[in-house]
Write a structure and sequence with these properties.
The chain is mainly α. It contains eight helices and two strands, in the order E-E-H-H-H-H-H-H-H-H. Strands 1-2 form a two-stranded antiparallel sheet. The radius of gyration is 19 Å and the shape is globular.
Length: about 220
């Protein structure tokens, strides 16, 4: 274990300059998240990013920059539509009567997913800051949540899809914030635990209000 005049330093503790140094090395080597690699075509970017998020997330999270967030947001928007479409197709399979409103439903559900994930990123970063872990700023936490939306593809797996989304989503969020900021693992765990507590309470209230409002609108049609 390294030491300083102030005492021992944990091997997991990164210096304040770590984020800047990591970005300098990535810029020099050309290492970036595939979705943000201008040298590739859009289909190749998408396939490579999905593959990394599902099979090798550490490699992707180590390459997260702090530049403009519009590319991660477009990725999040794409997977919000994928998640909404999958959910609505499930309802069509159940022969739910109001699926004739499919276009409106697609836009509404995708919008709700998008806002849900964005607000989740804000809440998560708040707790990272509270425990002293959000070193590289909110844009990096936002990127972690945007790319973690890849798990919505797992909805296509019968029976176990929703469970896999929850489990792998937690892994991506935790790994992402630990590696991308970077920050000690115990701080990331504490911040994520606090985030889940607040997020679970807020999500439950939101779902009750949203479902109540949707049922009210449908009953009036």
């Amino acid at each position: 274990m390294n030491t300083t005049p102030d005492g021992p330093v944990s091997p997991y503790e990164a210096p304040e300059s770590a984020g800047t140094e990591l970005e300098r090395r990535r810029s020099a080597s050309g290492e970036v998240v595939p979705w943000e690699d201008d040298a590739r075509s859009w289909p190749v970017r998408l396939g490579a990013t999905v593959g990394q998020m599902l099979l090798a997330p550490l490699r992707a999270f180590r390459a997260l920059p702090r530049a403009s967030a519009w590319l991660p947001l477009t990725y999040l928007g794409l997977f919000s539509v994928v998640g909404a479409w999958t959910w609505l197709l499930f309802l069509v399979g159940l022969d739910v009567p109001w699926t004739r409103w499919l276009p409106v439903g697609l836009v509404t559900v995708a919008g709700v997913l998008l806002v849900w994930i964005l607000v989740g990123a804000v809440v998560h970063h708040f707790w990272l800051e509270m425990v002293g872990s959000g070193r590289r700023g909110f844009p990096v936490t936002l990127r972690v949540h945007c790319y973690a939306a890849t798990v919505l593809l797992l909805l296509w797996i019968p029976l176990v899809g929703p469970r896999l989304i929850v489990l792998w989503g937690m892994v991506l969020h935790l790994l992402g914030t630990t590696v991308a900021h970077p920050t000690p693992l115990h701080r990331s765990l504490l911040a994520y635990f606090l985030y889940l507590l607040i997020w679970a309470a807020w999500s439950g209230l939101f779902l009750v209000l949203f479902c109540s409002g949707a049922l009210g609108v449908l009953s009036a049609i």
